[in-house]
């Protein structure tokens, strides 16, 4: 095993030192890592309502390979040009796998064959957690770019340990840089039409994070644009696998307070099952908005229309039960809650108003009509009396 590892490291060193291969190899590894970090772990049920996140092998492989490429890559100026991309990829990995564990068993392929053992005991000893591979790559990068001061600062602040623990994080992110924030948002907005599907997807994801912006002024300023970008992602022409559409729904879920009702009508009609599931989650979030808007007992503007449509469906779909429905409504005429009495009267009137002559003959008219007349004298709430008048107004075909 030791000889095999030595040969593998020698191979990476040869590739890295080859000037014609270094840049393409590094760029390819960064692209592979970015793809692998879309879903870098499996959630494993451990019983008793508990679960753990088990890291996939792929991002660990790419992080280890990037470390070797950084260590030996030539020419040095080419590596310096890629520092921002490398930093972004490694920080992305740390944030994605900081709460994951090494796999205990080897995963099986779909054909039943097992993958080779890559997570060895030696690796577990050298890196306590999967995020440790990204930390090792960062240290190598800082050493190679002659930035020992950064390593020293991280050592003194125990920053490397914080990278490995999801529960640890900086107490403050410093002063808010509004100009930098605006520049980043504008860059995301301008990249929404990028040819790369992944870039468009990540732009939508980034704009969705505006909901967490610490500056309310910035959030309000760009909220409408972010919502429009998310809505546009639902109809992305090149999004064959609905990756951008899924990200758009997640973004809308975060931006729900700034989203207009008229923008959301087509979301539940998506053909892709996962999109519909995410859409229902989005609409579930709207319950908090509805609760806030319907405070102090105010009814929705479409309440009367919705009740009238419901009455028509009940009467025409279940004609053998219309008398039962109206009698049930009349029972609620005596309810202690005024809104219940008013709603029952309106529903009964709407049902009776759409009946055919044959169905009208099945109604217990004396009982229902006399109960409606009593509601005209309701002593507690004028809305109940108004509802009774509206209900009686639908009975003209019974004359």
UniProtKB/TrEMBL annotation:
GO CC annotations, alphabetized: cytoplasm
Gene3D superfamilies referenced in this protein's UniProt entry, alphabetically: Leucine-rich Repeat Variant (1.25.10.10)
Pfam families: HEAT_MROH2B_C (PF23227)
Domain Maestro/Maestro-like HEAT-repeats per the UniProt entry, residue ranges: 184-293, 307-396
PANTHER family according to UniProt: MAESTRO HEAT-LIKE REPEAT FAMILY MEMBER 1, MAESTRO-RELATED HEAT DOMAIN-CONTAINING
UniProt protein name: UNC45-central domain-containing protein
